[in-house]
Amino acid sequence: MEADAAQLEAPRRRAVDGGAINFLSILQLKQFSLCQRSWYFAKVLRLPEPESKAQALGIKGHAQLEHYLRTGEDVLGDIARAGHHLLPTPGSDLLVEESFGTPSPLSADGVPFIGHIDLINPRRLADGVLRVTDHKFSSHVARYGATPAQLVDASTEAGLQMVGYGVWAALSVERFPSVRVLELEHLYFQTRGARRAESVLARTSTEHVTHEWTEKVVPMVRRMREVARATRSADAPPNFGACEKFGGCPFKEKCLSGGPTVSLMNRLILKNQAPDTAAQLPLAPPPSAAPAESLGTCDRCGATLTPENTSKLRSGDVLHVSCPGAEVAAVLPPDAPVASPTISTDGAPKRRGRKPKAPAAPGDHQESPTIVPMATSLQSERLRLFVDCVPNMPAASLAEYVSNVASQVSEAGGVEDLRFAGAESALGFGKWKGALAMAIRSTPPAPGAYAALGLAHSELLQIAVEALEPLCGPGDFVRGAR
Fold it and tell me: Which parts of the sequence are annotated with region: Disordered (predicted)?
């Protein structure tokens, strides 16, 4: 089992201090490759990582194997004993829990590595063969065990570790001068269900592991330097597909809490700042526009008319929407129920039952759209939302904006469609609804008029309308008749 505690070889130095990386470990590489933000929380912010039951079980099993291989005394528990036949005969020539040494020959981009290797078997070194073994305690060997191909591929979690161990052995020329072939082994011990053990072995050359390290690990360490200099966790990209792996990330609640560093929102906001979002619906207020062009004066109040305080109806008439002498109207859909005009009853006795209908004025047509007054003026800097009704002004489709945000939330959550997020996803079990609402509130559409039509047939639109309604001013949220 690799040791990642700085106290082992650098008791007075931290792995990351002041944005500078002093040293790394294979375990840190694995954590960073799995989720950069998790590594940032652990090594840059130095947040505590509570020990899980699986980790405690693994530590106990490693201690038993170490004692047995060093001394030959059989102290193996029932889990470790299942792999007794796969272990070499104990002896002083075996290198058990072997340290990388000080100074360590293993480094990447100038950063030294610390750590320990579970077992190195040099008994075939005369033939140029060195076996490097890492003991793994897994709940399900068949499901979670690596393949031989993965052990020699530094782009995989298993290969990242074993390639690093192989490079360390290749660089330790004074200790292993004749090594040409590396046998990289994962020895698995199953912790749940039937007791079983399995050896996964890959043979490779020292040249191969050195090439993998140079091409894949060195660039990763350069990226780790950038993340280490970040002043906020939002600059460390999260991997929401890893939240539930290995017993669950200890920083999941902080990452998804919705506090100052909301991982999902930060990822969406950073994405919206990318140049390729220019063609999308704006998710942030646009820069201030040029002074509005005058369109004359209002016949009623004498105010100067501009595109910002006027609305052109289908008939071609131009309305002064903020005129104190006129009411601003919103048009309902043609199939909406016809509204009855208000009948004055001053001086008339009150009667029970339905009020009589007012006679239709000459020339009126039943099929004409019903006009309902709006309470307040519509200003261009406001967000105006028309739900299941047709606005009396140019309006963008809210569905297009919602589809854009939903796609970004899906991408941030690592799923194709947020509505089908599985149990292993941070958006699973219906959590996508809250994530979508939070994304919409955090990055609402630019001020202007938007139409949300067909609300009953779109759950995404329903969530968006509910999230945006509190952001609309008085009179800026209009819902059509049901």
Answer: 334-370
